[in-house]
Amino acid sequence: MRKSFYLCALLLAVSLGSFAQKKKKAAATKDAILVFAKTAGFRHASIPKGKQALMLLGEQNKFAVDTTEDASVFTLDNLKKYKAVVFLSTTGNILDEAQQSAFEQYIRGGGGFVGIHAAADTEYDWPWYNQLVGAYFLSHPKQQNVDVVVNDHTHPSTVMLPDRWKRFDELYNYKKIILGIKVLATLDETSYKGGANGVNHPFIWYREFDGGRSFYTGGGHTDESYVEPLFVQHLLGGIEYAIGRKSAKKPM
After folding, report:
1. What are residue 12's phi and psi, to 5 degrees?
2. How far is it, in rounded angstroms, from Cα 72 to Cα 137?
3. pLDDT tens-place string over residues 180-228
4. Residue 236: is it exposed, middle or buried by C-beta count within 10 angstroms (0-12/13-18/19+)?
5. Domain 30-242 maps to which CATH number in 1.10.260.30, 3.40.50.2300, 2.170.16.10, 3.40.50.880?
6. What residues have CB less than 8 Å from 185, skipping those under 6 apart?
7. What is the pTM of this model?
8. Which of 50, 106, 241, 244 could cross-link to 111 by cystine, CB 3.0-4.6 Å?
């Protein structure tokens, strides 16, 4: 009888301990992001590697990551579950009018946005999106090495980067660049061939827009980007800004 009592007590203690651990883990991962990778134009082969990298960042930094290519999830009630939505090399027209409206309302309610690489090659007929993402894709030369000039280290996405960040990627030229973006880094067009934006060629930027927070990086075309330590940390900083964990520091 006594042994049974002790066994029940032990099982209850283990059960309560497991429940407490699950509750603590759930509380630690209350932040969540949605990674959206639908394509209606060119599809980047690096998208699966990008998803894997973002899911690993979530595990390591205590935020939940859902991935989808189903645009039907763009309802206001569903989007409210997330602190930020990541457009991972999306292309073309990927949302209908109702989904666009839901996304606009989400941002106006304080939501975050992260655009990676071909997020700029998306939704050309939606002027609000141009304002959100900050610029549209124009063209690109062949993939090659480049010097990324980091002009501002006060943002969570650039604090870890060197003044001249040497890397290999597909380098976009942009059109319809929004004046309100805060450019963190530019491409040195003298360090590669095919640049078309001149001395002030934006590559990384952010802005507060329409009630929310927007961050964009031009990197991320290659598989290798998503295991490149500096690029992955750079993405993490952009996400932390978008979800409101960190903000840009004011220059000293």
Report:
1. -65, -40
2. 25
3. 999 999 999 999 999 999 999 999 999 999 999 999 999 999 999 999 9
4. buried
5. 3.40.50.880
6. 148, 149, 150, 151, 152, 158, 161, 165, 202, 203, 204
7. 0.89
8. 106
